Amino acid sequence: MKTLWTYLHGAPVRRLRIGADGHHVVLDDPDGGALLLDLTGRPVVGSRLPAAADLVTTAGGRRGTADGVRLTLTPDGIGLDEAELDGPVTAIVTTPDGSVVVAGTERGTVYGLRPRLAEDEAPASPGDARSAFEEGRALAAAGEHRAAIGLLQRAAEDAGLRSRALYLAGECFQHMGAESAAAIAYEQAALSGPGDDDKRLLYDNARALRDQGRHTEAADRLETLLAWDATYEDAWKLLEDCRARAASATPGVDPSGTVSSPPEVRVRDLEARGLLGNSDSRLAAYDALFYVQFDHTGVHDSAKKRMELVQLLTAVGDLSAVATSLDVGSGTLRYPQVLDRFGVRSYGIDLSDAGIHSCVDERWASRFAVADGTAMPFRDGSFDLVTCMMGTVNHLSAAQRARFLAESFRTLRPGGLLVVSAWDPQCRFQTFLSFYSPAEMAQLRGQLTERVPLRAECAAAGFGEVRTTPFCTFPDWLVTGAGPGTDADHLARLADLDRDRAAHDPTAPGQMFLLSARR
User: How far apart are CA 333 and CA 369, in angstroms?
Assistant: First the structure.
């Protein structure tokens, strides 16, 4: 830990607390009063006041332990940072954000310390950052996780390395059992913006769109790129050219002459059927309550749901051949209601009916049952399509997945289709866990099933034609930076980004993947 300041109290320090505003240290005096220090170690003038419970708040989540003169910082019970003080440590407190540790000693010295787990104040030069990243990556690969973390956090000060460095730091924390620290690192990685590969992909995609005559779309890509790197090659010049060409293009004419891709066709079909917006105020209120509960906006999650819907319709193909469907873990009957608009007689089951009571018209009551996907209350061969969407399968153990797959196989007609979407643990963005607590993140991350094992489980259950398709292969900063326009325009851009990413790197995982398998 780095010493920021010291304050000589003149008597052994028996108790330290953090002020209610989070910006002051409350130092109890031997006479029963209290002295306030600011977070630079200076006494606050006129601050001597009676000690009182309402002056303090609970300290931050990073805990410290003392062994004589040695202070050790122990988030999640793992010793990660140390400092040696001038005497036996008698009091320890941390600020709510964990950026400053304040400790007192028997000799009467109060220390303000910055953990190495917090970001250093002095930015590293690009060369230093690259060296730190390479050294940190090598140490992580060798299992020296504690030594790697500080180097990776130093590398993260370089914008081009930030996402990868923080993600690797998160993995190191996770290997050490420090799940809270891992969760923070993953979230920082997700919000850090594009790395060099991402920026190159945006730039190359913009040039390709311009060459196809799709100037407005090319300009959107370039604006997203420039929002993160205003000095990138000739992006400004290219943007001006695309804007000028878009302004002079004949309205209503597609100069490229290209045929819409299947995702684009699906997006426009959904738009025509009014299925992209959320017109049901009850469902919107239900979703809002869910996200407020987890202190999460739901913007990114909503985009993933729409991308998932496009992937589902693409996997099913000809919906006129689907007469009946079942959605397992149906929640608010979202998918049965969507498929109903395509003429499919759709049903749903879930372990709870809370979403149904809040959001669904009574006419849907006969299409829903409180039931377990591992023991479905339906006859053999009842459905043409069984779906289990938005990561529901990630909440199942291996034994539960085996029973769910067996039940899906049983209730499908010969030739019927199973479609499952799941979060991909190989994805480096990890933002799919952003609205869970650190403990829930750790539990879910340990349960996530990778694509290859899930395909094998499906094959073992008797399914054929088992395929997986990654989607949302881009970090969340691109969800909000995909450009203006209608819901359909926005979704079509995201589908294009997925397609471009897959073409650039066919092995790249997405935040989610869709599995389809034939009975």
Answer: 11
Cβ atoms of 129 and 154 within 8 Å: the answer is yes
Residue with tokens 């400092």: 83
For residue 96, give both structure tokens. Answer: 């709510």
Flag whether pLDDT at 346 surpasses 90: yes
| Contacts of 131 by beta carbon, 8 Å cutoff, 6+ apart | none
Measured distance CA(305)–CA(390) in Å, rounded: 7
Q: Report the residue count for the chain.
A: 519
Q: pTM of the prediction?
A: 0.58
Round to whole Å and give the CA distance between 186 and 472. 17
pLDDT score of 240: 92
Those residues whose C-beta lies under 8 Å from the C-beta of residue 220, and which sit 6 or more positions away, are 482, 483, 484, 493
Kindly tell me the burial class for residue 66, based on how many C-beta atoms sit within 10 Å of its own C-beta (0-12, 13-18, 19 or more). middle
pLDDT of 400-424, one tens digit each? 999 999 999 999 999 999 999 998 8
* Angle formed at CA 142 by CA 140 and CA 145, multiple of 5 degrees: 40
Residue 173 parent element (H or E): helix 162-175
Q: Centre a 10 Å sphere on the Cβ of residue 460 and count the other Cβ atoms it contains.
A: 11
Query: What count of Cα atoms within 13 Å lies in the side-chain half-sphere of residue 28?
Result: 17
